[in-house]
Design goal:
By secondary structure, this protein is mostly beta strands. Helices cover 0% and strands 50% of the residues. The strands form three sheets. It has a four-stranded antiparallel sheet with strand order 3-10-8-5, with no helix packed on it. It has a four-stranded antiparallel sheet with strand order 7-6-4-9, with no helix packed on it. A hairpin with a 2-residue loop joins strand 6 and strand 7 (69-74). The chain starts with a strand and ends with a strand.
Length: 105
């Protein structure tokens, strides 16, 4: 999949920027790929999936607002959404369990 590039001009200087499609940021130290955890404290803005949904790697599961930035939390595996442990508006802590995925093997 090709990455999108944008040009940004600041004070007459042109910069080429890369826009990632999805930020897949697994919390280091968590070895269970069936558990999606918060990589930073924040607030759940929107949940994009429902329990029972089939997903593929890279699917946006939810939006997490941290320090006034929306972070897309994406799946790393394909499978079935088992349990969603948070709701929109919830405050979460770093490493808090957000979603369980039943992984296809």
């Amino acid at each position: 999949m090709e990455k999108e590039l944008d040009k940004l001009i600041i004070d007459g200087t042109e910069y080429v920027t890369e826009v990632p499609e999805c930020s897949i940021k697994p919390y280091e130290g968590v070895s269970d790929p069936s558990e999606i955890r918060a990589f930073i404290p924040g607030t759940i803005v929107e949940i994009k999936v429902s329990e029972g949904d089939m997903i593929e790697p890279g699917v946006v599961l939810l939006l997490l607002d941290a320090m006034k930035m929306h972070n897309e939390i994406c799946s790393r595996e394909s499978g079935l959404i088992g349990k969603i442990h948070v709701s929109s508006g919830d405050s979460v802590q770093k490493n808090q369990l957000l979603v369980n995925i039943i992984i296809n093997k």
